[in-house]
Amino acid sequence: MKIEGEREQVRDEAFFCRKRKKENTMRKLIAVLVLLLFLPALSLAGLQVHFLDVGQGDCTIVLCDGEAMVIDGGPAASSQFVYSYVKNTLGLRHIDCMIATHPHLDHIYGLSAILNAAPVDLILTPVMEWDSKAFQSMLKYADAQGTVLSVPEEGDVLSLGSAEVTILHCWPEAVDYGRTNDASIVVRVDYGNKSFVITGDAEDWSEYMMIESGRNLKADVLRVSHHGSSTGSTMEFLQAVKPELAVISVGSDNRYGHPHQEVLERLREAGANVLRTDELGTIIMDCDGEIIDIRVSGR
Ligand SMILES: [Zn+2]
Questions:
Q1: C-alpha 57 – ligand 1 centre gap (Å)
Q2: Three-point CA angle 26, 287, 65, nearest 5°
Q3: pTM recorded for the entire structure
Protein backbone atom coordinates (compact mmCIF):
# COMPACT_ATOMS: atom_id res chain seq x y z
CA MET A 1 0.00 0.00 0.00
CA LYS A 2 1.25 3.45 -0.79
CA ILE A 3 -0.03 6.93 -0.13
CA GLU A 4 0.27 9.44 -2.90
CA GLY A 5 -0.31 13.16 -2.87
CA GLU A 6 -3.57 14.70 -3.90
CA ARG A 7 -4.44 14.43 -7.50
CA GLU A 8 -7.32 15.46 -9.60
CA GLN A 9 -9.86 12.76 -10.20
CA VAL A 10 -11.42 13.17 -13.60
CA ARG A 11 -14.07 10.63 -14.30
CA ASP A 12 -16.21 9.87 -17.28
CA GLU A 13 -19.65 10.28 -15.79
CA ALA A 14 -21.25 8.61 -18.80
CA PHE A 15 -20.33 5.21 -17.44
CA PHE A 16 -22.44 5.86 -14.38
CA CYS A 17 -25.62 6.00 -16.37
CA ARG A 18 -27.03 2.60 -15.55
CA LYS A 19 -30.76 2.92 -15.41
CA ARG A 20 -32.20 3.41 -11.96
CA LYS A 21 -34.56 0.61 -11.08
CA LYS A 22 -37.91 1.26 -9.52
CA GLU A 23 -37.98 0.57 -5.80
CA ASN A 24 -40.36 -2.38 -6.09
CA THR A 25 -38.06 -4.05 -8.61
CA MET A 26 -35.20 -3.63 -6.15
CA ARG A 27 -37.25 -5.27 -3.41
CA LYS A 28 -37.95 -8.29 -5.60
CA LEU A 29 -34.26 -8.49 -6.53
CA ILE A 30 -33.27 -8.39 -2.89
CA ALA A 31 -35.81 -11.10 -2.04
CA VAL A 32 -34.20 -13.33 -4.67
CA LEU A 33 -30.69 -12.51 -3.51
CA VAL A 34 -31.56 -13.49 0.05
CA LEU A 35 -32.20 -16.97 -1.25
CA LEU A 36 -28.80 -17.25 -2.92
CA LEU A 37 -26.01 -19.16 -1.27
CA PHE A 38 -23.50 -17.13 0.69
CA LEU A 39 -20.61 -17.85 -1.67
CA PRO A 40 -17.03 -18.02 -0.40
CA ALA A 41 -15.96 -14.41 -0.37
CA LEU A 42 -12.51 -14.73 -1.85
CA SER A 43 -13.52 -16.81 -4.86
CA LEU A 44 -14.41 -13.81 -7.02
CA ALA A 45 -12.07 -11.39 -8.76
CA GLY A 46 -12.39 -7.63 -8.65
CA LEU A 47 -13.44 -5.42 -5.79
CA GLN A 48 -15.54 -6.63 -2.89
CA VAL A 49 -17.14 -4.43 -0.27
CA HIS A 50 -18.57 -6.18 2.78
CA PHE A 51 -20.96 -4.22 5.00
CA LEU A 52 -21.05 -6.45 8.08
CA ASP A 53 -24.22 -6.86 10.10
CA VAL A 54 -22.82 -5.65 13.43
CA GLY A 55 -26.11 -4.33 14.84
CA GLN A 56 -25.97 -0.68 15.93
CA GLY A 57 -22.49 0.20 14.65
CA ASP A 58 -20.32 0.00 11.58
CA CYS A 59 -17.80 -2.38 10.07
CA THR A 60 -16.94 -2.33 6.38
CA ILE A 61 -14.27 -4.49 4.75
CA VAL A 62 -12.93 -3.70 1.27
CA LEU A 63 -10.95 -6.32 -0.65
CA CYS A 64 -9.12 -5.85 -3.94
CA ASP A 65 -6.43 -7.92 -5.66
CA GLY A 66 -5.45 -9.70 -2.44
CA GLU A 67 -5.24 -6.50 -0.37
CA ALA A 68 -7.61 -5.71 2.49
CA MET A 69 -8.88 -2.57 4.17
CA VAL A 70 -11.07 -2.52 7.28
CA ILE A 71 -13.15 0.58 8.00
CA ASP A 72 -14.35 0.46 11.62
CA GLY A 73 -14.84 -2.66 13.72
CA GLY A 74 -18.36 -2.45 15.13
CA PRO A 75 -19.50 -2.46 18.80
CA ALA A 76 -18.64 -4.81 21.68
CA ALA A 77 -21.63 -7.08 21.06
CA SER A 78 -20.40 -8.07 17.59
CA SER A 79 -16.66 -8.41 18.37
CA GLN A 80 -16.71 -12.21 18.19
CA PHE A 81 -18.58 -12.04 14.88
CA VAL A 82 -16.13 -9.62 13.24
CA TYR A 83 -13.16 -11.68 14.52
CA SER A 84 -14.61 -14.83 13.02
CA TYR A 85 -15.60 -13.06 9.79
CA VAL A 86 -12.05 -11.79 9.23
CA LYS A 87 -10.28 -14.95 10.30
CA ASN A 88 -12.60 -17.70 9.08
CA THR A 89 -15.18 -16.38 6.59
CA LEU A 90 -12.67 -14.25 4.66
CA GLY A 91 -9.55 -16.12 5.80
CA LEU A 92 -7.51 -12.90 5.86
CA ARG A 93 -3.91 -13.37 6.96
CA HIS A 94 -2.96 -9.75 6.66
CA ILE A 95 -4.74 -6.39 6.60
CA ASP A 96 -3.07 -3.57 4.68
CA CYS A 97 -4.99 -0.70 6.22
CA MET A 98 -7.44 -0.21 9.07
CA ILE A 99 -9.43 3.01 9.42
CA ALA A 100 -10.85 4.01 12.78
CA THR A 101 -13.23 6.65 11.38
CA HIS A 102 -13.70 8.24 14.83
CA PRO A 103 -13.27 6.97 18.39
CA HIS A 104 -16.87 6.13 19.34
CA LEU A 105 -17.38 2.62 20.68
CA ASP A 106 -19.82 1.44 18.01
CA HIS A 107 -17.00 1.93 15.50
CA ILE A 108 -13.78 1.04 17.27
CA TYR A 109 -14.56 -1.59 19.90
CA GLY A 110 -14.22 -4.47 17.42
CA LEU A 111 -10.91 -3.19 16.01
CA SER A 112 -9.00 -4.96 18.79
CA ALA A 113 -10.66 -8.24 17.81
CA ILE A 114 -9.70 -7.66 14.18
CA LEU A 115 -6.08 -6.84 15.16
CA ASN A 116 -6.08 -10.22 16.88
CA ALA A 117 -7.51 -11.96 13.82
CA ALA A 118 -4.87 -10.68 11.39
CA PRO A 119 -1.83 -8.36 11.56
CA VAL A 120 -2.40 -4.80 10.36
CA ASP A 121 0.20 -2.63 8.54
CA LEU A 122 -1.34 0.82 9.01
CA ILE A 123 -4.10 2.40 11.11
CA LEU A 124 -5.59 5.73 10.04
CA THR A 125 -7.36 7.66 12.78
CA PRO A 126 -8.39 11.30 13.30
CA VAL A 127 -7.02 11.21 16.88
CA MET A 128 -3.88 9.56 18.29
CA GLU A 129 -5.24 9.48 21.86
CA TRP A 130 -8.68 8.93 23.33
CA ASP A 131 -9.84 8.31 26.88
CA SER A 132 -11.54 4.92 26.56
CA LYS A 133 -10.55 1.33 27.26
CA ALA A 134 -11.46 0.35 23.71
CA PHE A 135 -9.09 2.93 22.21
CA GLN A 136 -6.30 1.98 24.63
CA SER A 137 -6.82 -1.67 23.72
CA MET A 138 -6.54 -0.86 20.01
CA LEU A 139 -3.31 1.04 20.66
CA LYS A 140 -1.92 -1.84 22.75
CA TYR A 141 -2.48 -4.47 20.06
CA ALA A 142 -1.25 -2.12 17.33
CA ASP A 143 1.91 -1.38 19.32
CA ALA A 144 2.54 -5.10 19.90
CA GLN A 145 2.63 -5.74 16.16
CA GLY A 146 4.48 -2.59 15.21
CA THR A 147 1.50 -1.16 13.31
CA VAL A 148 1.99 2.40 12.07
CA LEU A 149 -0.64 4.93 13.25
CA SER A 150 -1.28 8.03 11.22
CA VAL A 151 -3.70 10.94 10.92
CA PRO A 152 -4.44 11.28 7.20
CA GLU A 153 -4.70 14.50 5.25
CA GLU A 154 -7.72 15.29 3.14
CA GLY A 155 -6.88 14.54 -0.46
CA ASP A 156 -4.46 11.71 0.37
CA VAL A 157 -4.82 8.77 -2.03
CA LEU A 158 -4.06 5.19 -1.00
CA SER A 159 -3.86 2.23 -3.32
CA LEU A 160 -5.68 -0.96 -2.44
CA GLY A 161 -4.70 -3.38 -5.16
CA SER A 162 -5.90 -1.67 -8.33
CA ALA A 163 -8.53 0.33 -6.41
CA GLU A 164 -7.93 3.88 -5.23
CA VAL A 165 -9.00 5.14 -1.83
CA THR A 166 -9.22 8.93 -1.43
CA ILE A 167 -9.52 10.65 1.94
CA LEU A 168 -12.45 13.04 1.43
CA HIS A 169 -12.62 14.27 5.00
CA CYS A 170 -10.71 14.09 8.28
CA TRP A 171 -11.20 16.91 10.77
CA PRO A 172 -9.49 16.19 14.11
CA GLU A 173 -10.35 19.70 15.44
CA ALA A 174 -14.05 18.77 15.42
CA VAL A 175 -13.40 17.09 18.77
CA ASP A 176 -12.63 20.52 20.27
CA TYR A 177 -16.07 21.70 19.16
CA GLY A 178 -17.74 18.73 20.87
CA ARG A 179 -18.54 17.29 17.44
CA THR A 180 -16.60 14.02 17.51
CA ASN A 181 -18.77 12.56 14.73
CA ASP A 182 -17.51 15.33 12.45
CA ALA A 183 -13.92 14.21 13.04
CA SER A 184 -14.83 11.12 10.99
CA ILE A 185 -12.55 9.97 8.23
CA VAL A 186 -14.66 9.78 5.06
CA VAL A 187 -13.28 7.80 2.12
CA ARG A 188 -14.06 7.37 -1.51
CA VAL A 189 -13.18 4.03 -3.13
CA ASP A 190 -12.82 4.04 -6.92
CA TYR A 191 -12.59 0.85 -8.91
CA GLY A 192 -12.93 0.92 -12.69
CA ASN A 193 -16.00 3.04 -13.39
CA LYS A 194 -17.63 2.44 -10.01
CA SER A 195 -17.30 4.40 -6.79
CA PHE A 196 -18.21 4.00 -3.14
CA VAL A 197 -18.33 6.74 -0.48
CA ILE A 198 -18.06 5.54 3.14
CA THR A 199 -18.79 8.19 5.70
CA GLY A 200 -18.28 7.04 9.29
CA ASP A 201 -20.64 9.18 11.38
CA ALA A 202 -19.85 12.49 9.62
CA GLU A 203 -22.61 15.04 10.12
CA ASP A 204 -23.90 18.10 8.29
CA TRP A 205 -20.83 20.28 9.02
CA SER A 206 -18.57 17.69 7.39
CA GLU A 207 -20.90 17.35 4.43
CA TYR A 208 -20.81 21.07 3.74
CA MET A 209 -17.01 21.05 4.07
CA MET A 210 -16.76 18.21 1.54
CA ILE A 211 -19.03 20.06 -0.89
CA GLU A 212 -16.95 23.22 -0.38
CA SER A 213 -13.73 21.29 -1.07
CA GLY A 214 -14.79 20.86 -4.70
CA ARG A 215 -13.69 17.21 -4.70
CA ASN A 216 -15.64 14.72 -6.77
CA LEU A 217 -18.30 13.28 -4.44
CA LYS A 218 -20.35 11.45 -7.08
CA ALA A 219 -20.61 7.77 -6.24
CA ASP A 220 -22.67 4.73 -7.12
CA VAL A 221 -22.86 3.54 -3.52
CA LEU A 222 -23.13 5.66 -0.38
CA ARG A 223 -22.62 4.11 3.04
CA VAL A 224 -25.04 6.48 4.75
CA SER A 225 -23.56 8.41 7.65
CA HIS A 226 -24.36 7.88 11.33
CA HIS A 227 -26.72 4.93 10.88
CA GLY A 228 -29.23 7.07 8.99
CA SER A 229 -29.38 9.85 11.58
CA SER A 230 -30.89 13.17 10.54
CA THR A 231 -27.69 14.84 11.84
CA GLY A 232 -26.28 14.00 8.40
CA SER A 233 -27.43 13.08 4.88
CA THR A 234 -28.40 16.63 3.97
CA MET A 235 -30.17 16.98 0.63
CA GLU A 236 -27.22 19.05 -0.65
CA PHE A 237 -24.81 16.22 0.12
CA LEU A 238 -27.09 13.54 -1.33
CA GLN A 239 -27.44 15.58 -4.52
CA ALA A 240 -23.64 15.83 -4.74
CA VAL A 241 -23.16 12.07 -4.27
CA LYS A 242 -26.26 11.01 -6.25
CA PRO A 243 -25.97 7.38 -5.14
CA GLU A 244 -27.85 4.60 -6.87
CA LEU A 245 -27.51 2.47 -3.75
CA ALA A 246 -27.51 3.65 -0.13
CA VAL A 247 -26.37 1.26 2.60
CA ILE A 248 -27.48 1.90 6.18
CA SER A 249 -25.68 -0.01 8.94
CA VAL A 250 -28.11 -0.03 11.84
CA GLY A 251 -29.38 -2.24 14.67
CA SER A 252 -32.98 -3.43 14.91
CA ASP A 253 -35.15 -1.40 17.29
CA ASN A 254 -32.22 0.79 18.34
CA ARG A 255 -32.85 3.41 21.00
CA TYR A 256 -31.95 6.30 18.70
CA GLY A 257 -34.75 5.69 16.22
CA HIS A 258 -32.18 5.22 13.42
CA PRO A 259 -32.63 5.42 10.54
CA HIS A 260 -34.65 8.61 10.82
CA GLN A 261 -37.72 8.85 8.62
CA GLU A 262 -36.67 12.17 7.09
CA VAL A 263 -33.37 10.64 5.94
CA LEU A 264 -35.20 7.73 4.29
CA GLU A 265 -37.41 10.25 2.54
CA ARG A 266 -34.44 12.34 1.40
CA LEU A 267 -32.71 9.22 0.04
CA ARG A 268 -35.86 8.28 -1.85
CA GLU A 269 -36.12 11.81 -3.22
CA ALA A 270 -32.47 11.65 -4.30
CA GLY A 271 -33.25 8.44 -6.24
CA ALA A 272 -31.30 6.00 -4.05
CA ASN A 273 -32.34 2.43 -3.34
CA VAL A 274 -31.85 1.76 0.37
CA LEU A 275 -30.25 -1.44 1.69
CA ARG A 276 -30.30 -1.89 5.50
CA THR A 277 -28.29 -4.34 7.56
CA ASP A 278 -31.15 -4.64 10.10
CA GLU A 279 -33.35 -5.99 7.29
CA LEU A 280 -30.85 -7.84 5.08
CA GLY A 281 -28.00 -8.86 7.39
CA THR A 282 -24.49 -8.59 6.00
CA ILE A 283 -24.46 -6.98 2.55
CA ILE A 284 -21.70 -7.84 0.06
CA MET A 285 -21.10 -5.98 -3.18
CA ASP A 286 -18.99 -7.59 -5.91
CA CYS A 287 -17.76 -5.10 -8.46
CA ASP A 288 -15.91 -5.77 -11.73
CA GLY A 289 -15.50 -2.07 -12.40
CA GLU A 290 -18.66 -1.85 -14.50
CA ILE A 291 -21.40 -3.68 -12.63
CA ILE A 292 -22.12 -4.13 -8.92
CA ASP A 293 -23.68 -7.44 -7.84
CA ILE A 294 -25.27 -7.67 -4.41
CA ARG A 295 -25.36 -10.63 -2.05
CA VAL A 296 -26.93 -10.60 1.39
CA SER A 297 -26.75 -13.06 4.26
CA GLY A 298 -30.35 -12.63 5.40
CA ARG A 299 -31.22 -12.52 9.08
ZN1 LIG B 1 -21.89 5.33 15.00
A1: 5
A2: 155
A3: 0.86
